[in-house]
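User: Okay, second chain of the day. Same drill as before: sequence in, structure tokens out.
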Amino acid sequence: MSYVTQNWSFDPVAIVMILTVLAHEIGLARLSRRSRHSSQRRRRLRSLAFYAGLATLALAIMSPLDYWSGSYFFVHMIDHLLLAFLAPILIVLGAPWVPLEFCLPVRARRALGRFLFLAPSAAGLRALGRGLRSPLFAVGFFNVVMVFWHIPRAYDYSETHQLVHVWLMHTSFVVAGVLFWLQIIPSHPMRPARGPVWQAGAILVTNVVMTIMAMSMSILTSSSWYTVYAHVSGVTMTPFTDQQIGAAILWVCGDFWALPMLFVVIRRAIETDGSVSDLVDRVFRSRHEDLEITAVHRSRRGA
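Assistant: Same drill. Structure tokens below.
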């Protein structure tokens, strides 16, 4: 029981979370004055998902999980899955964007909107936003972040430098996770930029990357990668066994998120195209059309 009740910590991020919840509730209250009851109910249900996402973040960074992750790699892997997968999924489902916008007074909200969407001086911010929302960037960034922070040198450095661990590693996991899941899950008022077939491909590619990482840390090596776990006092588990358990968690939990999401996007594709055969025909027809366009371009260049 002491593993659950002891070693809780306070992180300054908790203050940001509390302020975010307050701002979100103010926005919900202002929106409720101009909305129907059905809209209010949908926003309230979404807010519960958003708050669950924030609670998951708090669990990852302030609970005994964070404390024991300094001694056990497999606990740290659970932390990473919470930060990069579960918390971002809940935040995206929660769609907090409009309520957080409406926490501002009307004049401030309109001034901010004019600046962001119309001001020439904000053109760089608009370009940055389009780049961050790009499907290819979001999927690539997510996989790069996951791979980079499990490179032994990067991982060991983050474990011995607290600011890097908290503000770079943890933040990059959450940001990359939110950007990735925005490509899969509708988050009012934003919708995924690509269709279900592309989304299924993104999920499969990411799951393959996670599987290769897990295999590399377990069955494709015979030693521990991370020196920070080599001499932890009081730990009887060998670092390599610890690493193998962590790799197994990454491997198995990868299927826990990938398979349900694949089911969702495939069902979404079938609802759009009418049947599985229509979906398959559309995929191959699209591929055939791409090949024809490529052949035409090549013939023109040759001419």
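DSSP finds 14 helices and no strands in the chain.

User: Thanks, on to the next one.
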